[in-house]
Structure formats: structure tokens, C-alpha cells
Design brief:
mainly alpha; Arc Repressor Mutant, subunit A; Tetracycline Repressor, domain 2
Length: 202
């Protein structure tokens, strides 16, 4: 019988996939090293050779998720469509992703854990920084004199806070999700000063 060889990287991806399934099924409490070893088909010692602790598993999951999200969102950054539409879709993709994948409760649990675990907090901060760089690059394409162009950091923080709030409400109240796009769109239009001409000459 031929033995299938798995590289260390492949094995780590299998472990992370098993960890993600455990988290979705039972939350942060379900992710223990014994449970993960069993779900991955490894001994405890084998698991520890890949990840020394549960926090290291979470760190790797955060890094992987950030990479996947950045790839998913990059199309809006590079797109040729109207800037307001691209920013709106960038925001809505994140809101829908949280609600669709039912990961909001899990994300809140990880945020609470990060308050007590500095390396994990640093991982989340890096995640946020990398994703927000995409938003900042789009805001810098705004017309000169607009709030988005003159205050990109504040505009970015406003939109990120709006995304978090709408994702939370959408996960709990399904009707709240229906108004998310129009609220994001109006906020983006305000930041880009899209309606200023109409207001000034109407």
C-alpha cells in the first residue's frame, strides 16, 4: 500500500480547516488541543509539532482569513466602476460575509479573548490594518476637497464602525440587513461629496 505524503504546509491547512469547523460548531470553547487533535486525526504530540498552543492556531486562522478577505476585496479596489459603487460593495461584502457565514458570535468571542492575550490582539490589529489599507486607497481616489480625500483616516474609521454595527444588527435582526446597503451608500456619497453640486445649485 502506497503511503500518501503530506507536506507540513498541507497538514497545517488540514488542522486549520478542522479548527474552523470546531469553532463554527461549538464556539471558542470547543477549540481545545485534544479536540483539535482528534478532529485532525493526529496525536496530541503531532498537533503540538505544528502548533504549540491554541492561541497559535487562532493566530494562524486570523492570518489566513485576512489573506482570503483581502483577495476577495481587491477586485473592488482595482475595479473600473464608479468609486462610490466600489466602496459601497467593499463595505457590503464584509457585512454579508459576517452574516452569511454566521461568524459574528465567534468573532466577538475571539475579540474578548484578545483583550487578555496580547499576541492575539496584535494579530487582529494587523488583520484590521491590512484590510483598511484597501479602503484607504479607495478613499484617496475621492475628489479633492471631499471629506474622504481630506480626512481619509476619519472616513475609514467611520465606515469600519458602520460595517461592524450593521453586521452585528444584521446577524441578530434580519430586517436590519435589508437597509444596510442604502445606509452605506448614503454615507459613502456624503464622504465623496457626490450631492454637493445638486444641493448648491438646486
Amino acid at each position: 500500500m502506497t503511503r500518501t505524503y503530506r507536506s507540513s504546509q498541507d497538514r497545517q491547512q488540514e488542522i486549520l480547516s478542522a479548527a474552523y469547523d470546531l469553532l463554527l460548531q461549538g464556539g471558542l470553547g470547543a477549540l481545545t488541543m485534544p479536540h483539535l487533535a482528534a478532529a485532525s486525526g493526529l496525536s496530541i504530540g503531532g498537533l503540538y509539532r505544528h502548533f504549540p498552543s491554541r492561541e497559535d492556531v487562532l493566530h494562524a486562522l486570523i492570518v489566513h482569513d485576512a489573506e482570503q478577505l483581502a483577495i476577495e476585496l481587491q477586485g473592488f479596489v482595482d475595479g473600473k466602476a464608479n468609486l462610490g459603487d466600489r466602496i459601497t460593495k467593499w463595505c457590503m461584502t464584509q457585512i454579508n460575509r459576517e452574516v452569511r457565514e454566521n461568524t459574528l458570535k465567534l468573532r466577538l468571542e475571539i475579540l474578548a479573548m484578545a483583550c487578555r492575550h496580547e499576541p492575539l490582539a496584535e494579530s487582529l490589529a494587523q488583520y484590521e490594518k491590512e484590510v483598511c489599507m484597501q479602503l484607504r486607497s479607495m478613499l484617496m481616489q475621492a475628489p479633492p476637497g471631499s471629506q474622504a480625500r481630506s480626512q481619509p483616516k476619519q472616513s475609514q474609521e467611520l465606515l469600519c464602525a458602520l460595517i461592524d454595527g450593521l453586521a452585528t444588527r444584521g446577524a441578530v435582526f434580519s430586517e436590519a440587513l435589508r437597509s444596510s446597503r442604502s445606509l452605506i451608500k448614503r454615507t459613502v456619497e456624503s464622504l465623496l461629496d457626490i450631492h454637493d453640486t445638486e444641493f448648491n445649485h438646486g
